[in-house]
Design a protein that fits this description.
heterodimer, A: about 525 residues, alpha/beta, Rossmann fold, six-stranded mixed β-sheet, 21 helices, globular, disordered N terminus, B: about 375 residues, mainly alpha, ABC transporter involved in vitamin B12 uptake, BtuC, two-stranded antiparallel sheet, 2 strands, about 0% strand, disordered C terminus, binds adenosine-5'-triphosphate, binds magnesium ion
């Protein structure tokens, strides 16, 4: 711990050695009974990339929001380049050259990429120069994107690129990334941070990376600060540490092999083989049949193209594939959000009308959507209310909600799923990203579904929660639920699935059992190379 | 971005609201005073007239309460559609059509007896609901935004009722009963009117009690009932509602029609409650007397909270009855209109300021200017 050293650093010392780009001292922020930041002392040097690790709800996002003036601290001070600053408004932070890429998207869907990039700007617009600038940044950081694409048509990964470009366009000298790579592929993330490293070193900039991916943090950063329950509990140098010790510092105990594996993306072939045996034994009649479905979106774009798949009770089927190949629409279809042009969806032999409000849910299909803010939660409602969005019967009497009952139910779930919040009445927007995800998981499991669609279910979760999510999915499968795991992270799919389907261009391009996985063939299928 | 602006403590926010309201009302009063002085008037008698007209004068607060009732009922309907994420701005028309429905059926089916009053109120609500139902149909069948359709239906409604008032097989009173007026309905019989009990020398229809009870009911239904829960879900995140089986068409159309129903009920209450400004128990052109528009403002200022709408409705009613007295001070009529407008604006400014400030903060953050 180096906290004291930072507190005692006075003006005299600051003169001797160059002051750090950012110095946070004694930053405290309370939300009701929750202490999101508890006297945090942290210095961020120029020319370095700083990693910040911590469990869901540790206070990482709050600390970063304080730095850019979105949240006002209760106590503590901030100095930038040795000068004390009062950052009470994001505009002040902007003037100081601080930029941030937020954990959740804030793009305007009907607008194009370049329009989104210039939003909020004053003065005359020169579309051509903006487009050029987007191109420059895209090239420099390996974030290739079409400036004229409509954001609404982009995949999560591409939207993330837009967010990053939006931030980098202003050349901030202090850049904060709050979980930017949860939707980027590992290669994209490596390229982004390699290019950032060059700029950081050459121009003396400062980068902060908040992430749950230990290997990424080890790779991309120089110094790592670990937060637990609002405090910085440890600092390590990326060069001298490894994933297990980071995980231990984060959680405060030894982390089991499994979560380490998930965090590191390692595979356990023995375990997988064992699971495969069990799965082949359990193979029963399919419960969910998706038959030759096709759908097209605005302007006749093909979303799903003659896609078929079966899902048996008790099996976990992984849907692999590069993002943007129809995975999102498959999950929309099973959420009653997408009406079909052709084909059918059957549950237990019954055809389910597509696109009819709640039809899929009533038929026993639960969905953890890829974008929780889009179709998973209602931010303005409370945690308790969000837990009963689909089914209010257990907390209602004579068509009135029984507040006491709702409260008890929510308390139980909050405890069982260790959701960090001030209580059942906390508004959903006040929860950290990972805790919002837990609410979705809890609610979908509580439906006692026959089919569970989990789209990028671990997005935003910390290592402990990833482990928990995996266990829950396996437990559900063990109870006879058919699980459809849609993920762009191959490790996750290899880790959990019994059978793997690869999606490409809105259809299933290939299939393989977990036992005969051929990584090379998988890669080719994902790239659309094999028919 | 998760509501970044909501990070202040609620206490600090309450303080801000207080200061904002204080400042903007003060500002409006100052401007009004300046205006009166500039037009060679004297501001003191104007203030006195405002107070006399709304509360101080004999029987005046009864008059104010009489106006507050329908205002509140209209606002409550607006609260419901607003919570469902719909923008109904056609209350003025729904109210008028509702009143016409109530008049017509009241006389067709009508007979003597207090039971008929209940029927008339019911017909009023039905008429308003059906009128809003057209907008609902257009929206969910053809995708026409309800902002447009409800607004256009105000004009159409007014024309339609005016047409009805020209023919005695529709709404027009029979030859002998209409004196020298040519667009007026028959007057409701004594036993077809709402009671107007006297309270401390002030007389007003029981509409006020109906409205306040409805406010409590709406507040409870929105916050506590399964239906209200689903409406809120639909308003806040229609996609989640779609996944969960809360059909936008079904719940949205219901909310819009309820909203129109409330406006129609307000119209029927004005008809049966009687007050000279509202037509003296008969339907006339211009019967709606801006109660629909003002009720919409009440809901806006109350920011979709049914209970908060109660005091706001009283304030707006007071402005209305008070400014009718200002004319007698010799200040020009148009100046009174401006003053009333300024005071209404003063009540609308704080929510707008807060809205824009919050949005600005959120946007500054969201648009990557930081
Ligand atoms: N505006 C707010 N109102 C109330 N509580 C809040 C608010 N913002 C954050 N919190 C609480 O503060 C704690 C820290 O939240 P924060 O978002 O900083 O976590 P985090 O470390 O970013 O977690 P994650 O990894 O899940 O994103 C959480 O318990 C959260 O519920
Ligand atoms: Mg966070």
């Amino acid at each position: 711990m180096t906290g004291e050293e930072f507190v005692s650093a006075g003006a005299g010392e600051a003169l001797a050695s160059p002051a750090p780009a950012v110095r946070l001292s004694g930053i405290t922020k309370r939300f009701g009974s929750v202490v999101a930041c508890d006297e945090v002392d942290l210095a961020l040097e120029r020319g370095r990339i700083h990693g910040i690790l911590g469990e869901n709800g540790a206070g990482k996002s709050t600390l970063m929001k304080i730095l850019i003036g979105l949240v006002l601290p209760d106590a503590g001070s901030i100095s930038i380049d040795g000068v004390h600053q009062q950052i009470h408004d994001p505009l002040v932070a902007a003037d100081l050259g601080i930029g941030m890429v937020h954990q959740h998207f804030s793009l305007v869907e009907p607008l194009t990429v370049w329009e989104n990039v210039t939003l909020g700007e004053v003065g005359r617009l020169d579309p051509e120069s903006v487009r050029n600038r987007v191109g420059e940044i895209a090239e420099q950081y390996g974030l290739v994107i079409d400036p004229d694409a409509r954001v609404g048509d982009l995949t999560a990964g591409l939207r993330q690129r837009v967010e990053i470009i939006k931030c980098l366009r202003r050349d901030p000298s202090i850049v904060i990334f709050d979980e930017p790579t949860s939707v980027l592929t590992p290669e994209e993330s490596v390229q982004l941070f390699d290019s950032l490293r060059n700029v950081v070193a050459a121009e003396g900039r400062t980068v902060v990376l908040v992430s749950h991916k230990l290997d990424e943090v080890l790779h991309a950063t120089d110094d790592i600060a670990i937060m637990r329950q609002g405090s910085v509990v440890d600092r390590q140098s990326a060069a001298e540490t490894d994933a297990p010790s980071l995980a231990r510092a984060m959680v405060g105990r030894e982390v089991s092999l499994r979560s380490e594996r998930a965090a590191l993306g390692l595979l356990d072939d023995e375990l997988a083989a064992a699971r495969m045996n069990q799965a082949t034994m359990n193979r029963a009649d399919p419960i969910l049949r998706v038959r030759n479905v096709s759908a097209s979106g605005a302007g006749g774009v093909t979303l799903l193209n003659d896609l078929s798949l079966d899902l048996a009770p008790g099996e976990i089927v992984g849907i692999a594939g590069v993002e943007g190949n129809g995975q999102r629409h498959l999950s929309d279809l099973l959420s009653s959000l997408l009406p079909l042009a052709e084909g059918s969806v059957e549950m237990n032999g019954q055809t389910i009308p597509t696109g009819r409000s709640g039809a899929m849910a009533r038929a026993g299909i639960a969905v953890i959507p890829e974008d929780r803010h889009d179709s998973g939660i209602v931010l303005e409602m409370t945690v308790a209310e969000n837990l009963v969005l689909f089914d209010q019967s257990r907390v209602a009497r004579h068509r009135m909600l029984d507040r006491g009952e709702l409260d008890n139910f929510a308390r139980e779930v909050i405890k069982k799923f260790s959701i960090a919040c001030t209580g059942p009445d906390a508004p959903m927007w006040a929860l950290s990203g990972g805790n919002q995800q837990r609410v979705v998981l809890a609610r979908e499991l509580a439906k006692r579904p026959q089919v569970l669609v989990a789209a990028q279910p671990t997005r935003g979760l910390d290592v402990g929660a990833i482990e928990y999510m995996g266990e829950r999915l396996e437990e559900a499968a063990g109870d006879g639920v058919g699980v459809l795991l849609i993920s762009s992270e191959l490790e996750e799919i290899l880790d959990l699935s019994h059978r793997i389907l690869v999606m490409h261009s809105g259809r299933v391009a290939g299939e393989m059992g977990r036992a005969d996985v051929d990584i090379e063939r998988l890669g080719l299928l994902m790239g659309g190379a094999v028919a | 971005m998760t509501a970044p602006f909501a990070t202040q403590t609620s206490q600090a926010r309450a303080g801000e609201w207080f200061v904002l309201y204080g400042l903007s009302v003060l500002g409006a009063l100052l401007l009004s005073a300046l205006l009166v002085e500039a037009t060679d008037g004297d501001w003191r008698p104007v203030v006195n007239a405002l107070l006399d007209g709304s509360v101080r004068g004999k029987g005046r607060w009864g008059e104010t309460l009489g106006a507050a009732g329908p205002l509140l009922i209209v606002a409550l309907g607006t609260v419901i559609s607003g919570r469902a994420g719909l923008v109904n701005i056609g209350q003025e028309g729904q109210l008028f059509v509702g009143a016409a429905f109530a008049t017509y059926l009241g006389f067709v089916i009508g007979g003597p007896g207090p039971l008929n009053v209940v029927l008339i109120l019911f017909f009023g609500a039905t008429g308003g609901a059906l009128w809003a139902g057209i907008a609902a149909l257009l929206r969910y069948w053809r995708g026409v935004p309800e902002v447009l359709s409800t607004l256009l239906l105000v004009t159409v409604g007014a024309q339609l009722v005016a047409y009805g008032l020209r023919y005695d097989w529709l709404l027009l009173a029979p030859e002998g009963d209409r004196g020298n007026r040519n667009q007026v309905s028959e007057q409701l019989a004594d036993d077809n009117r709402l009671p107007r009990p006297d309270l401390f020398g002030n007389e007003f229809p029981i509409t006020v009690y109906i409205a306040i009870s409805l406010a409590v009911v709406v507040s409870i239904v929105m916050a506590r009932s399964v239906w209200g829960f689903r409406i809120r879900m639909l308003g806040r995140n229609p996609r989640v509602a779609q996944v969960s089986g809360v059909s936008g068409t079904h719940y949205g159309a219901t909310a819009l029609m309820l909203s129109g129903g409330f406006a129609g009920l307000a119209g029927a209450c004005m008809l049966t409650g009687g007050a000279f400004a509202f037509g003296n128990y008969q339907l006339v052109p211009g019967f709606s007397a801006n109660i629909g528009w003002t009720g919409l403002l009440v809901a806006l200022v109350a920011r979709e909270k049914a209970l908060i709408a109660i005091p706001i409705a009283f304030v707006f009613a007071g402005l209305r009855t008070g400014s009718s007295f200002v004319g007698s001070t010799g200040v020009e009529g148009r100046v009174t209109d401006v003053i009333q407008g300024l005071l209404v604006l003063a009540l609308l400014v704080p929510p707008a300021v807060m809205f824009f400030r919050d949005r600005h903060r959120a946007r500054v953050a969201a648009m990557g200017r930081v």
